[in-house]
């Protein structure tokens, strides 16, 4: 192809030889500020490749990684927190709660640990959720609201099959354990009558002897519950699984088995102590 370069008559600059529909391009040099910035960028990139991780499998002579950076910061944080954590580990939850400095730290740390580990089931303020997740912010306790009781529950959990000490007996599923569905219905009416929410007094009267025979051992004569077994109180209007007739029938016929993980193998002693103090302070803590 013939070289079509020519000198432009007006500017006196040579053209590139490209032409589109009669429009020609002047061959001006790059502005030098642009050119030197460009060279500087290349030099910077080359230096970066040598110093920092950039190409696959090339670490860079500084040995810097964001992961190292992070573990360093974490270790520093841990070292700073360690004296306080050691005190929180050594003290009992009751001692922590009695010491204003430890208590403040435990409440702040407990709140964070609760949001991370517990809120998914118990709600962000420990308010619980229907479906078997008890409120931790009221004074209705399955296993007790003293520091010791809460500490044990958190450590071992309930019905989790992972901790041999786990709390919680298993309620029988009465549809398969000797009651007809009509009897389940009657005893459900009786259960509802214990908290004054039943509708059918005749059915409740039929259910009363069934309750004495099948339920008293765990739930108590007046439905007061049993903390050693984790059998909930039935004569209040607080329900784990719902207090409408259909839910109560379902509970009695097929039973429920709420599972709470065991935390002693997942969280360190200081964190469990902080959580105990935090949960105790949510509203229902007992002496
Ligand atoms: C997977 C869901 C789940 C998670 C996560 C969970 N829990 Fe539970 N928790 C339960 C269930 C279900 C029960 C009720 C067990 C029962 O019915 O016997 C329970 C019971 C409890 C109780 C006993 C309440 C009472 O009335 O005696 C305490 C205290 C408790 N949880 C604290 C915690 C703390 C603290 C954490 C976080 C470290 C936590 N839970 C994480 C499901 C969970
Ligand atoms: C072996 C002990 C045991 C026996 C016997 C038993 N229960 Fe239970 N019951 C429990 C336990 C433990 C729970 C809690 C289950 C859970 O937390 O998942 C429970 C839960 C319930 C609940 C749900 C309460 C709520 O807050 O939602 C009802 C209702 C109930 N039982 C009624 C009965 C009736 C009626 C009988 C007799 C026909 C009976 N139970 C017999 C142990 C027992």
Automatic annotation (TrEMBL):
<dbReference type="Pfam" id="PF14715">
    <property type="entry name" value="FixP_N"/>
</dbReference>
<keyword id="KW-0812">Transmembrane</keyword>
<keyword id="KW-0408">Iron</keyword>
<keyword id="KW-1003">Cell membrane</keyword>
<feature type="domain" description="Cytochrome c">
    <location>
        <begin position="105"/>
        <end position="195"/>
    </location>
</feature>
<dbReference type="GO" id="GO:0005886">
    <property type="term" value="C:plasma membrane"/>
</dbReference>
<feature type="binding site" description="axial binding residue">
    <location>
        <position position="171"/>
    </location>
    <ligand>
        <name>heme c 2</name>
    </ligand>
</feature>
<keyword id="KW-0249">Electron transport</keyword>
<dbReference type="GO" id="GO:0005506">
    <property type="term" value="F:iron ion binding"/>
</dbReference>
<feature type="binding site" description="covalent">
    <location>
        <position position="118"/>
    </location>
    <ligand>
        <name>heme c 1</name>
    </ligand>
</feature>
<dbReference type="GO" id="GO:0020037">
    <property type="term" value="F:heme binding"/>
</dbReference>
<keyword id="KW-0375">Hydrogen ion transport</keyword>
<feature type="binding site" description="covalent">
    <location>
        <position position="215"/>
    </location>
    <ligand>
        <name>heme c 2</name>
    </ligand>
</feature>
<feature type="transmembrane region" description="Helical">
    <location>
        <begin position="33"/>
        <end position="52"/>
    </location>
</feature>
<comment type="similarity">
    <text>Belongs to the CcoP / FixP family.</text>
</comment>
<dbReference type="InterPro" id="IPR004678">
    <property type="entry name" value="Cyt_c_oxidase_cbb3_su3"/>
</dbReference>
<keyword id="KW-0349">Heme</keyword>
<feature type="domain" description="Cytochrome c">
    <location>
        <begin position="202"/>
        <end position="283"/>
    </location>
</feature>
<keyword id="KW-1133">Transmembrane helix</keyword>
<feature type="binding site" description="axial binding residue">
    <location>
        <position position="219"/>
    </location>
    <ligand>
        <name>heme c 2</name>
    </ligand>
</feature>
<keyword id="KW-0406">Ion transport</keyword>
<keyword id="KW-0479">Metal-binding</keyword>
<feature type="binding site" description="axial binding residue">
    <location>
        <position position="122"/>
    </location>
    <ligand>
        <name>heme c 1</name>
    </ligand>
</feature>
<comment type="subunit">
    <text>Component of the cbb3-type cytochrome c oxidase.</text>
</comment>
<dbReference type="InterPro" id="IPR050597">
    <property type="entry name" value="Cytochrome_c_Oxidase_Subunit"/>
</dbReference>
<dbReference type="Pfam" id="PF00034">
    <property type="entry name" value="Cytochrom_C"/>
</dbReference>
<dbReference type="InterPro" id="IPR008168">
    <property type="entry name" value="Cyt_C_IC"/>
</dbReference>
<dbReference type="InterPro" id="IPR038414">
    <property type="entry name" value="CcoP_N_sf"/>
</dbReference>
<dbReference type="InterPro" id="IPR032858">
    <property type="entry name" value="CcoP_N"/>
</dbReference>
<dbReference type="InterPro" id="IPR009056">
    <property type="entry name" value="Cyt_c-like_dom"/>
</dbReference>
<dbReference type="GO" id="GO:0009055">
    <property type="term" value="F:electron transfer activity"/>
</dbReference>
<dbReference type="GO" id="GO:0016491">
    <property type="term" value="F:oxidoreductase activity"/>
</dbReference>
<feature type="binding site" description="covalent">
    <location>
        <position position="218"/>
    </location>
    <ligand>
        <name>heme c 2</name>
    </ligand>
</feature>
<feature type="binding site" description="axial binding residue">
    <location>
        <position position="260"/>
    </location>
    <ligand>
        <name>heme c 1</name>
    </ligand>
</feature>
<keyword id="KW-0813">Transport</keyword>
<keyword id="KW-0997">Cell inner membrane</keyword>
<protein>
    <recommendedName>
        <fullName>Cbb3-type cytochrome c oxidase subunit</fullName>
    </recommendedName>
</protein>
<dbReference type="GO" id="GO:1902600">
    <property type="term" value="P:proton transmembrane transport"/>
</dbReference>
<dbReference type="InterPro" id="IPR036909">
    <property type="entry name" value="Cyt_c-like_dom_sf"/>
</dbReference>
<dbReference type="Pfam" id="PF13442">
    <property type="entry name" value="Cytochrome_CBB3"/>
</dbReference>
<keyword id="KW-0472">Membrane</keyword>
<comment type="pathway">
    <text>Energy metabolism; oxidative phosphorylation.</text>
</comment>
């Amino acid at each position: 192809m013939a070289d079509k370069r020519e000198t432009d008559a007006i500017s006196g600059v040579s053209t590139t030889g490209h032409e589109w529909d009669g429009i020609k391009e002047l061959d001006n040099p790059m502005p030098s500020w642009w050119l030197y910035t460009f060279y500087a960028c290349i030099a910077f990139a080359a230096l970066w490749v040598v110093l920092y991780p950039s190409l696959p499998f090339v670490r860079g002579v500084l040995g810097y990684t964001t992961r190292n950076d992070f573990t360093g910061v974490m270790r520093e944080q841990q070292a700073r927190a360690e004296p306080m954590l050691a005190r929180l580990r050594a003290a009992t939850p009751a001692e922590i709660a009695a010491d204003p400095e430890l208590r403040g730290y435990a409440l702040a740390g407990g709140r964070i640990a609760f949001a991370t580990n517990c809120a998914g089931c118990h709600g962000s303020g420990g308010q619980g959720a229907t479906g078997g997740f008890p409120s931790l912010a009221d004074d209705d306790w399955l296993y007790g609201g003293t520091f010791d009781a809460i500490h044990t529950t958190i450590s071992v959990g309930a019905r989790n099959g992972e901790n041999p000490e786990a709390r919680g007996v298993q309620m029988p599923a009465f549809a398969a354990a000797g009651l007809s569905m009509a009897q389940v219905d009657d005893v459900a009416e009786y259960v509802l009558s214990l908290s004054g929410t039943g509708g059918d007094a005749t059915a409740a009267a039929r259910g009363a002897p069934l309750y004495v025979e099948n339920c008293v051992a765990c739930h108590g004569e007046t439905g007061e519950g049993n903390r050693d077994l984790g059998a909930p109180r039935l004569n209040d209007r607080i329900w784990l699984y719902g207090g409408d007739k259909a839910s109560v029938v379902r509970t009695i016929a097929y039973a429920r088995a709420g599972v709470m993980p065991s935390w002693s193998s997942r969280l360190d002693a200081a964190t469990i102590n902080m959580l105990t103090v935090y949960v105790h302070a949510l509203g229902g803590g007992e002496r």
